Amino acid sequence: MRSTLPKMLHQLAGIPLLGHVLTAVEAIPSTSAFASLHESLTSHRPVVVLGHEGEQIAAAFGERCLYAVQQEQLGTGHALLAAQVTVDALQPVPETVLVCYGDTPLVRSEILASVLTEHLSTQATITFLTAQTELPSDYGRIVRDSHGQVREIVEVKRATPEQLEIREVNSGVYCFQRAWLWSTLQALPRNASGEYYLTDLIAIAGAQERRIATVQGELEETIGINNRVQLAEAEQIVRQRVLEKHMYAGVTIQDPANTYIDADVQIGSDTVILPGTVITGKTTIGSWCRIGPGTTIDQTLIGDRCIIRNSALEEAILEDEVRVGPFSHCRPGAYLARGVRMGNFAEVKNSYVGAETDMHHFSYLGDATVGEHVNFAAGSITSNFDGKQKHRTTIGNRAFIGCDTTLVAPVTVGEDAYTGAGAVVTKDVPPATVVVGVPAKVLRKRELEDTPAIQGGE
């Protein structure tokens, strides 16, 4: 990968490569293919064999997995043997070992379940996944005898010209009988490259006349990632799967070719995603929303019936019926309550904005708490940083912040208070009070039914 980051942690649709494989393995019990066995079998957490820079992988996945360490990298057979102590310590001790490569993120839980059920139903010593290809490839070829029985897997670099014509190839997904597996791995000879190959177990089982079963899957599911070109190719496949999942679930995606949605994103039915939209992280979007065009959303919670146009949202929370944009920005810690209207070129950071508040254009709220039914007019800002630390601004319910008002934090504007256009507020404003000027001073108290003649914006 030409990277200081371990290959297994390179991301695909917002999830590390290994995370895709673990998700597929963990979902096996919920597949239809596994339903008949669900009550009779016990499964364990996956065991991940770590090698170079394995501590980074263990830190990333934590207790989601068990871990074994391959001290020397001497091939796939040697890697699997490194897991023996960890596997044999499980209770109950498993009789079947399912093996997957950590760099094959396109494998699905359904095909893994099919391999497992085939293995158990046929009582095979080895069951593995194969695929058909019409194009030359680097995958090992499946060699069968005249009766169709598998005899061996031949790696490309030692295959004969006739064997290279074989179109059935190996995928790297195996089921083994545990007792046979460990004893055979311990006796596995090194190959010509000085390593122990997992694929050599097939020839050994064939020579012993052991039962070898196969399940045929799609070649796409067997793709391994060895460089960034292959990573990009797999990204296209995974993203198309994600888009199709949402569309089948009732989400309208007008232009799938120009829409990017991470695998962990959740979207409610009847939401419309417009072109040029990028939705990443563990974002959740409710039903009947309209998102885009040209919108970026990351790690954000969005309620129902929201409209987000040409804007950026990151680590924010929006309740139902919120409108944002065009060209606005919700930064981390922004919380927009029900019915907030945030117009063009506005920004909210680390602030709570109360229900039905209007913040229509060219405004900034940072480190603020804003009440309900507030009008925050064009050009108004909270001046929250004094050069050394941040301070908070509090605005009460139904306050009216006139155009180009600067609120110099820490400051509180009381309920039903008004600020005049261009006011610089450096002191707290009492409730139901009108202030104007630089610095702002009290003009008068107001009756609640008053509408003072000061410039605002909606």
UniProtKB/TrEMBL annotation:
Location within or outside the cell: Cytoplasm
One biological process term in Gene Ontology: UDP-N-acetylglucosamine biosynthetic process
Residue span of region Pyrophosphorylase: 1-228
Pfam families: Hexapep (PF00132), NTP_transferase (PF00483)
Domain of life where this protein originates: Bacteria
Pathway recorded for this protein: Nucleotide-sugar biosynthesis; UDP-N-acetyl-alpha-D-glucosamine biosynthesis; UDP-N-acetyl-alpha-D-glucosamine from N-acetyl-alpha-D-glucosamine 1-phosphate: step 1/1; Nucleotide-sugar biosynthesis; UDP-N-acetyl-alpha-D-glucosamine biosynthesis; N-acetyl-alpha-D-glucosamine 1-phosphate from alpha-D-glucosamine 6-phosphate (route II): step 2/2; Bacterial outer membrane biogenesis; LPS lipid A biosynthesis
Binding site for Mg(2+): 103, 226
Region (N-acetyltransferase) location: 250-458
Cofactor note: Binds 1 Mg(2+) ion per subunit.
Enzyme Commission numbers on file: 2.7.7.23, 2.3.1.157
Residues reported to bind acetyl-CoA: 378, 421
EC class: transferase
Cofactor (UniProt): Mg(2+)
Coiled-coil annotated residue ranges, if any: none
Family: In the C-terminal section; belongs to the transferase hexapeptide repeat family. In the N-terminal section; belongs to the N-acetylglucosamine-1-phosphate uridyltransferase family.
Function: Catalyzes the last two sequential reactions in the de novo biosynthetic pathway for UDP-N-acetylglucosamine (UDP-GlcNAc). The C-terminal domain catalyzes the transfer of acetyl group from acetyl coenzyme A to glucosamine-1-phosphate (GlcN-1-P) to produce N-acetylglucosamine-1-phosphate (GlcNAc-1-P), which is converted into UDP-GlcNAc by the transfer of uridine 5-monophosphate (from uridine 5-triphosphate), a reaction catalyzed by the N-terminal domain.
HAMAP family listed in its UniProt record: GlmU
Protein name: Bifunctional protein GlmU
Gene that encodes the chain: glmU
